[in-house]
Amino acid sequence: MTSALIWISIAEPIGVIVCGTDAGRSHSVRKVQVSVDVDVVRPTCVFRVPNQGVIVVTYTINRLFKDATFEAIDARTRAALANNGFGILTEIDVAATMKKKLDIDMPPYRILGACNPKMAHQAIGKEPRVGAMLPCNVILRNVEDGIEVSAIDPVASMQAIDNAELHTVAGQVRDLLKSAVEAI
User: Fold this and answer.
1) Residue 175 CA to chain centroid, in angstroms?
2) Average pLDDT across the chain, whole number
């Protein structure tokens, strides 16, 4: 019998997760002890579950562009976000900041703070302190193979908040961000 993982959420202190699996018509939920490795190069967490192998969980929506300049991808990203109802509230040029504050050179790395006002209003209405986790960050960075765009996955980031209505809004925002990243 094969089963497919349908969700994972951190449910208790680090090292314990709740796994839900769907094996045809049956559904099971169980808590398991795991070891967790966070890969700082790739946006994933790797869970090694006893007797289950390795489960990889990503917290960003990613796309790699091999034949375009950083500035071209920046313009396309802004347009795709706008077409999906997002405005840019903040912009951080991480490379320029590192140079100015630490005199360290690094490849281009930009953080765009994207906000969909309608969705932000809904989220704040469901959970007033969620503003501490807004706006949705989208990063553009030079990588070895080109320019990578990564948008936060709001569903992953909202797992820390026990609010089912907020999770529904987060799912809608994830769909909008995914659509934007695909449209770049």
Assistant:
1) 12
2) 79
Residue 14 has pLDDT above 80, yes or no: no
Tally Cβ neighbours within 10 Å of residue 119: 20
Encoded amino acid at 2, one letter: T
Please, are residues 84 and 182 in contact by the beta-carbon 8 Å criterion? Answer: no
Of the candidates 111, 89, 92, 90, the one whose C-alpha atom is nearest the C-alpha of residue 100 is 92
Do 45 and 98 have their domain in common? Answer: no
Tokens 């906000």 found at: 115
* 3-state secondary structure at position 57: strand
pTM of the model: 0.71
How many domains in the chain?
A: 2
Among 40, 58, 76, the domain boundary falls at 58
Q: Are strands 60-65 and 53-58 parallel, antiparallel or unpaired?
A: unpaired
pLDDT in tens, 105-158: 999 999 999 999 999 999 999 999 999 999 999 999 999 999 999 999 999 999
**Tokens representing 49?**
């579950």
What pLDDT score was predicted for residue 35?
Answer: 46
